[in-house]
């Protein structure tokens, strides 16, 4: 890189203020008028800000409620009454809720929480460990057993057994129900086009709708607690099973299906002897995705009082106790790794079973005997742990949970004190240099000016359809009465997305250009992606204390893996021939990147930005827990404070509207590029 | 006259949303392109009729997209016909309910596919026995039958392998054994060897010839390769755009192509390898000096060449009953061979 000094400065103008900030890369050259239009909009906007600052901003003081929120509060009260009187609420929903809660309570009594009379659960840690280890052995192999055993021992050592197992109970139940419903649904969808056409959009919505959008309504219907947690988790975890099952059955070689039909198979024979065995591996991949989704969502449901480690994280975050949050967060990460590896190993085994030609070491008979024998051992251990305290109660002396917590607190203090200069500097640069001006620009102008800016930017970038979507979403935000807070959240989201994309492009370009970088970075990103969003708040909180910036850091941490991968794939997608041609005219590396690879990877970049944005938005909400303020705060507060229910609900609607609006603008902008 | 093994009568297949409604309308008179432009329907097979005699090898040939695969699938209703009838041993397939149809597929007709369509999660022996399993035969019976078939196609020793451990040619042998296992009356092949290397393809063609001699099944064989068609076919049906262009024996197709499409197809064929004396003999000129030798009219020219050239004067060509159909001399033979040289 020799001629880079001048070129390196070239992208700098992009960093200017205003809406051009992140939209610029999208529109660079297809339509030369767009930058001009955006510049005009920005100029009007800044001018309006200078003249009309602080007027008609629609800001609503913290405790104040508007008519809509009061109405929501009334609805909430009324539903509370209905739960006593109304047949549907009392009998139908009531019984479902009671049933789920009973199942969870029974499992807790058996595995995690001592029932009143006993000092330990019916099955102690040794038994639980043995049983889960055996399950891992049966579905995935002995390596997974080791992983499971180590994870559960660490639960004991970290003194998070009860909540760790509770998290696994919620996750496990949700996965079971997801598979029980999703698998037949996927098969049905694969067989009937009509069924598929009907359910596909529903599954899409279930999977992409931000969880906070349905957290509040479901809490209303199911009441807070395990039942609500499981229903919410189900909504998010079921789609992967159904869709991947459908996809897997469609993926079965057409000629094999035809050959089987030519032999006169019945539909049932085709399904059982041909399609399911051949689709098995892919279906297990679907179960892997379902499990990770379930774990992530089960953690978040701590907000509606779902049992498990999520609760510990929330409490610790709210008490600003980084050490405790770290311990609980580690438990979640351990659970994530354990579930991911075990289900992955299960899918590999399914692969081997599908093409048994190579791999399998044991004869089926031997394996059956082995499974039987180990099952007996596990049951004996379970029985021992029911009878004897030594097998049921982990010795207090052998736990280090609180020690770890205080070490981490000490270490955090040390780091914060020692590197305060650096962390404060970074925090202040972003806060004062980017976040404050932008938030002021977004929220401190008259609402109609900001609305006009949003609409004109949408129209410029995405045309009429983006304009329509923005108008609808804008009207919804206005209707919730949270315009001011929404604009603050929007500004924060944009800042976090820009930072995410900076990281993603730097890393993604490196990965896309170098196979070796990819080989090193990708597994790390994969691991990052298995970690539930909650956990990212912990390190951010440790370094930056409770602030808006903390939420932004957590958002970037959560969003950059997916964005980076998409960028890397986009860069790799640029054809080798084009690159060769470029090299042949003597471009520098930097020129190749900026003039060829990045522009040509544009669809990948847009997709990455879009995904990054949705991820960031989901953190911005739980960022309310660590002082991010704005909408996220209300969402979180709405679950704990009766009188803020309506405001929290309204905030959830506003956040969803923001998400949909940004998503549509980007999508239509991308479509216009084609 | 014996009952044909297979009778296809004015069979149609139109792909598209409202294909059934088109039957009997003038739209079906339109060419493929016109119909596609007008209503989005594609004609797969257009008004095809033919009979196949028991034990005959009937080859369907045409360029890719001419409707061969569709035609062969219509016969067992892997694709539902739009109209027309198919009679198998006099039984109307097109009128059958699902159960009866399944029974036909299990017992009477088997098929071999271009891409094999094997079950990757089953051993060779279980792939071969799959059809028997599907129709409910017990394990011992289907094992022994499958083993017989494995031996028949020369795969002994590979019974416990999985398909992905075999070469393409061997996989197709598994497909062949699977088709034979149910002991069907009719075997159907859809371009079974197109995915194979030329050398393997020749082996497999010989294999089919051998099997035909051994088991004597009726065969419907789809190919786009004229050499294959000529080598295997008792009769050849040539298709274009879903329609029959010509049906005839190999020498009829080569000697008297129905139109330019067929002529183009056969132009590369070494005629002396296919044509018989019948195609080159001429009436005897009165007073001509004819040798004593006679040759049957069905003799391939290449095989007759030596005898004709050695003979003193023209040779007499006789039919099956010993009646003279004409004579050939050196020049008649050389004309065919030289024309070949020139076109090559
Ligand atoms: N399911 C289908 N839907 C629509 N058109 C089809 C379908 N299957 C085949 N066709 C069309 O029918 C024609 C004949 O196809 P096919 O029978 O596969 O030809 P061949 O086997 O001779 O190559 C082709 O033009 C093909 O595009
Ligand atoms: Mg074909």
Automatic annotation (TrEMBL), chain A:
Question: Which processes are annotated in GO (biological process)?
Answer: choline transport; glycine betaine transport
Entry GO terms, CC: ATP-binding cassette (ABC) transporter complex
**Does the record carry Transmembrane helix as a key word?**
yes
Q: How does it sit in the membrane?
A: Multi-pass membrane protein
Instruction: State the Gene3D superfamilies in the record.
Output: MetI-like (1.10.3720.10)
Residue runs in coiled coils: none
Superkingdom as given in the UniProt entry: Bacteria
Residues spanning the membrane: 34-52, 128-155, 167-188, 219-238, 282-304, 316-339, 369-391, 441-459, 466-484, 490-512, 533-560, 613-636, 648-666
Gene Ontology MF, one = amine transmembrane transporter activity
Indicate yes or no for the key word Transmembrane helix.
yes
Quote the InterPro entries the UniProt record gives: MetI-like (IPR000515), MetI-like_sf (IPR035906)
Q: Where is this region: Disordered?
A: 1-22
Q: Where is the ABC transmembrane type-1 domain?
A: 164-345, 486-666
Key words of the record: Cell membrane, Membrane, Transmembrane, Transmembrane helix, Transport
User: One Pfam family for this entry, by name?
Assistant: BPD_transp_1
List compositional bias (Low complexity) regions by residue number. 1-20
Localized where?
A: Cell membrane; Membrane
PROSITE patterns hit by this protein: ABC_TM1
Q: Which family does it belong to?
A: Belongs to the binding-protein-dependent transport system permease family.
- For this entry, the protein name equals Putative glycine betaine ABC transport system integral membrane protein
From TrEMBL, chain B:
Q: What SUPFAM superfamilies does the record point to?
A: CBS-domain pair, P-loop containing nucleoside triphosphate hydrolases
Q: Does the keyword Nucleotide-binding apply?
A: yes
Look up and give the organism this protein is from. Nostocoides japonicum T1-X7
Q: Which InterPro entries match?
A: AAA+_ATPase, ABC_osmolyte_uptake_ATP-bind, ABC_transporter-like_ATP-bd, ABC_transporter-like_CS, CBS_dom_sf, Gly-betaine_transp_ATP-bd, P-loop_NTPase
Q: Which family does it belong to?
A: Belongs to the ABC transporter superfamily.
- Which residues does the UniProt record annotate as the domain ABC transporter? 30-266
What PROSITE patterns is this protein classified in? ABC_TRANSPORTER_1, ABC_TRANSPORTER_2
Signal peptide region: none
The GO annotation for biological process reads: glycine betaine transport; response to osmotic stress
GO CC field? membrane
Q: Which GO terms describe its molecular function?
A: ATP binding; ATP hydrolysis activity
Cited Pfam families: ABC_tran
Q: Which keywords describe this protein according to UniProt?
A: ATP-binding, CBS domain, Nucleotide-binding, Transport
**Entry-linked PANTHER family:** GLYCINE BETAINE/PROLINE BETAINE TRANSPORT SYSTEM ATP-BINDING PROTEIN PROV, GLYCINE BETAINE_PROLINE BETAINE TRANSPORT SYSTEM ATP-BINDING PROTEIN PROV
SMART domains per record: AAA
UniProt entry tagged with the keyword Transport: yes
What name does UniProt use for this protein?
A: Putative glycine betaine ABC transport system ATP-binding protein
């Amino acid at each position: 890189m020799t001629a880079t000094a001048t070129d390196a400065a070239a992208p700098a103008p992009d960093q200017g203020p205003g809406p051009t900030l992140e939209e610029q890369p999208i529109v660079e050259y297809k339509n030369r008028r767009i930058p001009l239009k955006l510049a005009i909009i920005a100029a009007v906007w800044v001018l309006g800000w200078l003249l009309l600052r602080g007027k008609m901003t629609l800001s609503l003081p913290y405790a104040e409620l508007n008519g809509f929120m009061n109405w929501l509060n009334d609805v909430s009260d009324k539903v509370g009454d209905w739960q006593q009187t109304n047949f549907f609420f009392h009998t139908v929903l009531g019984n479902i809720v009671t049933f789920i809660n009973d199942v969870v309570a029974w499992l807790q009594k058996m595995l995690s929480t001592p029932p009143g009379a006993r000092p330990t659960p019916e099955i102690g840690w040794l038994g639980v460990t043995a049983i889960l280890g055996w399950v891992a052995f049966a579905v995935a192999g002995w390596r997974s057993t080791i992983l499971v055993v180590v994870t559960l021992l660490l639960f004991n050592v970290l003194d998070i057994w009860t909540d760790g197992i509770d998290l696994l109970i919620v996750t496990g139940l949700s996965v079971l129900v997801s598979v029980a419903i999703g698998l037949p649904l996927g098969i049905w969808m694969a067989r009937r086009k009509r069924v598929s056409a009907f359910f596909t959009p529903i599954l899409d919505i279930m999977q992409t709708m931000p969880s906070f959008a349905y957290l509040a309504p479901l809490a209303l219907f199911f009441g807070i607690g395990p039942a609500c947690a499981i229903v919410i988790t189900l909504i998010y975890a079921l789609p992967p099973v159904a869709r991947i099952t459908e996809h897997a059955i469609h993926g079965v070689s057409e000629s094999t299906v035809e050959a089987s039909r030519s032999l006169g198979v019945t539909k049932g024979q085709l399904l059982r002897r041909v399609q399911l065995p051949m689709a098995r591996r892919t279906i297990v991949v679907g179960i892997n995705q379902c499990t990770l989704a379930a774990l992530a969502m089960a953690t978040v449901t701590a907000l509606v009082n779902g049992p498990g480690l999520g609760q510990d994280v929330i409490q610790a975050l709210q008490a600003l106790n980084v050490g405790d949050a770290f311990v609980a967060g580690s438990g979640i990460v351990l659970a994530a790794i354990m579930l991911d590896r075990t289900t992955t190993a299960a899918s590999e085994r399914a692969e081997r079973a599908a093409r048994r030609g190579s791999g399998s070491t044991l004869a089926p008979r031997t394996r059956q005997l082995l499974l039987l024998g180990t099952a007996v051992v596990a049951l004996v251990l379970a029985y021992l742990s029911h009878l004897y305290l030594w097998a049921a109660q982990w010795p207090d002396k052998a736990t280090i949970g609180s020690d770890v917590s205080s070490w981490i607190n000490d270490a955090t203090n040390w780091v914060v004190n020692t590197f305060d200069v650096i962390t404060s500097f970074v925090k202040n640069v972003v806060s004062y240099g980017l976040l404050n001006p932008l938030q002021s620009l977004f929220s401190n102008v008259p609402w109609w000016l900001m609305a006009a800016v949003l609409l004109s930017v949408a129209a410029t970038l995405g045309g009429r359809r983006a304009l329509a979507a923005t108008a609808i979403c804008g009207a919804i935000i206005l209707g919730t009465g949270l315009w001011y807070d929404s604009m603050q959240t929007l500004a924060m989201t944009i800042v976090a997305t820009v930072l995410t994309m900076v990281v993603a492009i730097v890393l993604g370009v490196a990965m896309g250009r170098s196979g070796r970088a990819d080989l090193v970075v990708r597994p790390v990103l994969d691991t990052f992606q298995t970690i539930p969003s909650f956990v990212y708040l912990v390190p951010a909180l440790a370094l930056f204390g409770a602030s808006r910036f903390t939420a932004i850091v957590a958002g970037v941490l959560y969003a950059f893996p997916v964005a980076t991968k998409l960028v890397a794939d986009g860069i790799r997608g640029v054809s080798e021939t084009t690159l060769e041609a470029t090299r042949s005219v003597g471009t520098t590396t930097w020129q190749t990147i900026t003039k060829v690879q990045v522009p040509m990877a544009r669809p990948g970049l847009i997709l990455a930005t879009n995904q990054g944005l949705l991820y960031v938005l989901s953190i911005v909400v739980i960022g309310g827990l660590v002082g991010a303020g704005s909408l996220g705060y209300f969402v979180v507060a709405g679950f704990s404070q009766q009188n803020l229910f309506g405001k929290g609900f309204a905030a959830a609607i506003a956040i969803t509207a923001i998400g949909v609006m940004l998503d549509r603008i980007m999508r239509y902008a991308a479509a216009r590029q084609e | 006259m014996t009952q044909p093994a297979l009778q296809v009568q004015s069979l149609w297949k139109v792909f598209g949303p409202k294909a059934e409604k088109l039957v009997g309308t003038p739209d079906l008179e339109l060419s493929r392109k016109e119909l596609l432009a007008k209503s989005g329907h594609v004609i797969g097979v257009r008004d095809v009729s033919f009979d196949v005699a028991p034990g005959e090898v009937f080859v369907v040939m045409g360029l890719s997209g001419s409707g061969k695969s569709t035609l062969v699938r219509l016969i067992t209703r892997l694709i539902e016909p739009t109209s027309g009838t198919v009679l198998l041993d006099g039984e109307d397939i097109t009128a059958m309910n699902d159960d009866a149809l399944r029974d036909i597929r299990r017992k009477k007709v088997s098929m071999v596919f271009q891409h094999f369509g094997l079950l990757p999660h089953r051993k060779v022996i279980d792939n071969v026995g799959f059809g028997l399993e599907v129709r409910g035969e017990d394990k011992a019976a289907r094992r022994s039958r499958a083993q017989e078939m494995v031996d028949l196609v020369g795969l002994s020793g590979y019974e416990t392998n999985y398909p992905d451990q075999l070469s393409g040619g061997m996989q197709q042998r598994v497909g062949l054994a699977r088709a034979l296992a149910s002991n069907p009356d009719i075997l159907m092949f859809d371009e079974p060897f197109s995915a194979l290397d030329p050398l393997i393809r020749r082996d497999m063609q010989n294999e089919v010839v051998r099997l035909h001699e051994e088991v004597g099944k009726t065969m419907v064989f789809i190919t786009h390769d004229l050499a294959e068609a000529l080598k295997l076919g008792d009769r050849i049906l040539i298709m274009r755009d879903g329609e029959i262009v010509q049906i005839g024996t190999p020498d009829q197709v080569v000697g008297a192509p129905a139109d330019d499409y067929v002529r183009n197809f056969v132009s590369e064929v070494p005629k002396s390898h296919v044509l018989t004396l019948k195609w080159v003999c001429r009436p005897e000129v009165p007073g001509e000096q004819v040798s004593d030798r006679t040759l049957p009219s069905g003799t391939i020219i290449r095989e007759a060449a030596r005898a004709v050239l050695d003979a003193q004067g023209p040779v007499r060509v006789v039919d099956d009953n010993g009646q003279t159909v004409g004579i050939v001399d050196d020049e008649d033979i050389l004309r065919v061979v030289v024309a070949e040289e020139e076109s090559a």
